[in-house]
Amino acid sequence: MLPASKILVGVDGRQGGRDAITLARDLSAPEAEIVLGHIWSRDVLSGRDRTEEAQALLAREAQRAGIHATTDAVGDSRTAAGMRRLCAQHEPDLVVVGASHRSAAGRLLVGDLGRALVHELCCPVAVAPQGAASSPLALIGVAWDDSDASRGALAAARALAAATGAELQLFHAVEPPPVAFASPAAPMFVAGLSVAEIERSREETDALGDRPGIVEVGPSVPGLMRLSAEVDLLVIGAGRHGLLHRIVLGSHADIVIHDAKCPVVVVPEASMKEARASAALAAECVSPGGEDLARGGS
Which candidate, 28, 153, 216, 258, has a CA 20 to 30 Å from the CA of 227? Predict the structure, then answer.
């Protein structure tokens, strides 16, 4: 959960990785452990081991950023697979990558690693915009659609807001089902649906956030892009039925993640399931009388 106590940062020696380091600092808890990771391209034909070069690159980047960090480099023909290996080894609370289109870290979310990180890992993924500058978090935007995925995003945003003093503002795009447009009575049907949905969404987003919620009728992406220009951080939940599923796996992935004006944090639904499982386990270790069975009681 955020702020993160252990962060894995994708670094490649270019600006995208440096943007990621900057964002990692802003999202880290005090005394957090930062792991700088690099995936060097493995050449199957030559068999050359570039681990030493990669470690030297990571040491230079850590020195340049003025941070004390653990460094790790692995060779793989696919950046996605290499990052998954680093995640499995270090078990971070958060993975941070840069959105530069020219860097390896930027390419993470253009191809299959975006899907891999969001849908396979049990930790949030943060994407730093190009040229990210460190700044206090005053306003955090949350994409909301009343799904488990968006509830996970809200929980993460609330935890971060509690630690930083930031305010929350929720965004909900009311998207009429496509089948509604197949009927001659579509305009009337959609209008009626939208009015009821908007009213409910306004009440809900106002109640859940610190500032009045933003509710719009239409596609999610344009509204999220506008919101990214007004907030310091945008948090989105990713799940099979969540808001992010409709945009990350579609043609607008690059627009939302790479062109957002602010950093974007993607919270996979799996991270909330893991958190609930841990909470349930902790509850089982406490007897009805209040004794902590994990410590053997008093």
Answer: 28
